[in-house]
Automatic annotation (TrEMBL):
Domain Glycoside hydrolase family 3 C-terminal: 103-226
A GO molecular-function annotation: xylan 1,4-beta-xylosidase activity
Identification of the protein by name: XYL2 arabinofuranosidase
Cross-referenced InterPro entries: BXL, GH, Glyco_hydro_3_C, Glyco_hydro_3_C_sf, Glyco_hydro_3_N_sf
Keyword field contains Cell cycle: no
Source lineage: Eukaryota, Metazoa, Chordata, Craniata, Vertebrata
The encoding gene: Xyl2
GO biological process, alphabetically ordered: arabinan catabolic process; xylan catabolic process
């Protein structure tokens, strides 16, 4: 109604949503939100009582599965507390999920994986605006962990038995100010260069889209300078 003008009133929006199968509203905090007009739609015959029951049933089924209507002693979720947050078990599971979800698009000449036994003699350079900036590593709606648990690419690589150098090139993802000499100096003296590029929520987020998929600012130039 407000953005796409598909409907004209909250009542019409409620009816269209119900007919489309929507059963839960994320309102804007308005006291008079869309689904508050469902009783009026029911009275006017725009929706049926059976449709309302069909939409509500999965909501309450989920709430029952979560134990919301059970005494606390019967609800296993009631025993959880803040000790479960960032627990070793959960961090290990997150690490496992990260390792198993990596997507390798290309591996020219078998560059990867880097072998641990070869690293002591290697010089690694990690460059780019995502190389050592914890703030930009998390996506939209993602919880930000405690700083002690955040491993940027630079911090992670520095745990390896290798000589690691670092150059951001540009401090933030928009990459409007670019230091070519900084990147060329670090990359030119390295055996292996890890380039960390992207957009992050500074460039893309809910209701903030880009016109194209190209790397922002001078990031493409940074990449070319790092691998030449």
């Amino acid at each position: 109604m407000l953005g796409h003008h598909y409907t004209r009133t909250f009542l019409e929006t409620a009816v269209a949503s119900m007919n489309a199968g929507c059963n839960l509203e994320l309102s804007y905090g308005m006291r008079n939100n869309v689904f508050m007009h469902i009783p009026q739609a029911l009275v006017m015959g725009n929706i049926t009582l059976q449709m309302l029951r069909d939409r509500v049933r999965p909501l309450f089924y989920t709430r029952m599965r979560l134990g919301e209507f059970d005494p606390p002693a019967m609800n296993p979720y009631s025993t959880l507390n803040l000790s479960a947050v960032q627990s070793p078990e959960h961090r290990n599971l997150s690490l496992e999920a990260a390792v198993k979800s990596f997507v390798l698009l290309k591996n020219a000449r078998g560059t990867l994986p880097l072998r641990a036994q070869d690293l002591p003699s290697k010089r690694l350079a990690v460059v780019g605006p995502f190389a050592d900036n914890p703030r930009v590593l998390f996506g939209d709606y993602a919880p930000v962990p405690e700083p002690q648990y955040i491993y940027t690419p630079r911090r992670g690589l520095e745990t390896l038995p290798a000589n690691v150098s670092f150059a951001a090139g540009c401090r933030e993802p928009p990459c409007q100010q670019y230091s070519r000499a900084e990147v060329v100096g670090a990359a030119g003296a390295a055996d292996v260069v890890v380039v960390c590029l992207g957009t992050g929520i500074d460039m893309e987020t809910e209701a903030k889209d880009r016109r194209d998929l190209s790397l922002p600012g001078h990031q493409l130039e940074l990449l070319q300078d790092a691998v030449q």
